[in-house]
Amino acid sequence: MSEVLTLEAFPHSIMVKEGEELAKQGREAVEWLRTLGVSTPADRYHGYVRAVEAFGKIQGDDAAVRKAADSFVNANAELYELIRVRTALLQVDSQGYLNTLKQISQGQPFRHIAENDPGRDYLFEMSIAARLLNAGHEVDLNQIADIVAQVNGRKIYVEAKRIKSANKLASRVSEANKQLKKRLAQDSSSTSRGIVAVNITDVITPNCETVLIQSERNLRDKHSRVFNGFITDSPEPFHKGEQSKCLGAFIESSWQGWIWDGDSDPRLFFCRGATFKLYRVTQSEKDYVRDFIPKLANQFG
Predict the structure, then answer these.
(1) Does residue 236 sit in helix, strand or coil?
(2) pLDDT tens figures, 28-72
(3) What does each C-alpha distance from 179 to 146, 158, 196 come to in angstroms?
(4) Domain range for residue 248?
(5) 65: exposed, middle or buried (C-beta count within 10 Å: 0-12, 13-18, 19+)?
(6) In which band, very low, low, confident or very high, does the pLDDT at 263 lie, cut at 50, 70 and 90?
(7) Could you identify which of 27, 43, 99, 240 might form a hypothetical disulfide with 105, taking C-beta atoms 3.0 to 4.6 angstroms apart as the criterion?
């Protein structure tokens, strides 16, 4: 039997980003990419900064205003992820991550437009690497797995899959487990283990929907119900191809919402959720997971 770790160790984080502050941090993050030689004014990240700076200045009919609002919401989510990655990589030598960073600026500006989206796939790898770095672990993105980390005395291989639709979840998890089996077979250490990391944002919000809700707590609760409900109702795909040396599946998603109580100006909030679904592991492996996963999942921002 599997076990889902979902108690107080895995709360949702709520992040408020006002337009001016987001634009400032976004500009800094995009300039950081440019100085590393991996971003140009024509790529999507520069476009996101322009969309944030233009928000509220658009004049015209309802369609033009709606388009500007959609662009702002999309830019908010994309820049938020980039800011998180930059903040984590400032702790280390970013040059070691250039091969992956070169890929993340590619692709369509809106994530739901393209079926294949390698730029955002690489960004998800960077997002998981950022979690590991923020938790105090050494990370390498230049080995045979998406991520190789040194976690509390063990080498952990991570295969990261950004899931585009529910009907592809099982096959993508199975693919990750097969990759981990191969990686672990090549490792001579008996203590090395694997983790499947999946992002299901596009599964629970396939059209990048943004909810209008009264408070940040209501947004957190709504996202938690949808996120955990999906995992509880469909647990089997997260076990597809389960391997003996794989510890389980780290699952995350994010959601945005306009918070409006009917009186004050609406504000855009960003909500992130994460949990871990254990595979069939020994008690010592379970204790190991319980020790490091909360620090990985419970991160504000």
Answers:
(1) helix
(2) 999 999 999 999 999 999 999 999 888 767 666 677 777 888 888
(3) 10, 9, 10
(4) 3-297
(5) middle
(6) confident
(7) 43
